[in-house]
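1st attempt posting a full record on here, be nice pls
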Amino acid sequence: MNLSCLHTHTTFCDGEDDVETFCRAAKEKNLHSLGFSAHAPITKKTGFVTGWHLGDDRLEEYLDAIRSAKKRWKGRLNIYAGLEADFIDGLTGPADREYREMGLDYLIGSVHYLVPPKGKPFTVDGPPEEFARGVGESYGGDGEAAMGAYWDTLEKMIAAGGFDILGHADLIRKNNGDDQWFDIESKNYLERLSRIALLIGLQQHIVTEVNTGGLNRGKIKDTYPSPAFLKLLAQGAQGTSVQGALAPVIITADAHRAKDLNGHYTLAKETLRRAGFKETLLFEGRENGRPRWTPRPL
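the predicted structure (as tokens):
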């Protein structure tokens, strides 16, 4: 089965390789398609200055680079233009109107930031010391509270919509180590997973990515979402067609290096099979304003 990668980050944001290097690697790895998904610009809308988002002044340059690659690789590799849009509560999200006006092939919706009632916004996937400082300053050191805030934010993003692919749905696990901040087998945590799985199921236009980025960078030992989360999602997908499935999925590498484009895909497929999935989807572009997906057996 020829897979693809729709979650990639080049030197336009926090990736290590340029567009052409990714294209060559995708062809060498026999991928069906390659989608670029720079972290969408946020500075003008939020005032946040980071070293890992696409700069507001480089958006057109980024899109032009992908358009140019599409022409160069036509007939050899399917290339798509996307963005990974942050949902930052009260400030910006994938449902913002400008994304619909960019002519993108797809949009990934992700939660990286928590915006606490008190204290400064911080990311859940930054260095461990930054996460610890954020939890300490904003949630009194209560990891359970920070975890709950993450799920609340993800629920808000799902409800608001505007995106095609749900990015690394349980990213909050990244800095949890050996349950350092919260217990992923606790009743509370599992109830939140079930609630999120139900919300995803109710939004049938959402495709959930099975993201191997944490594995590729040695940050976690399994996929985002976790095997337990995927089992909950699979319960809605059993016995349904792709168009009616409650939890359709794709596999992505969240690649920041070209060599990681299909990293740990074999493990991702095995994880999906064990969870109960029988197929994944392949992106085939947009048609009448909607993404077109083709089912592929696992």
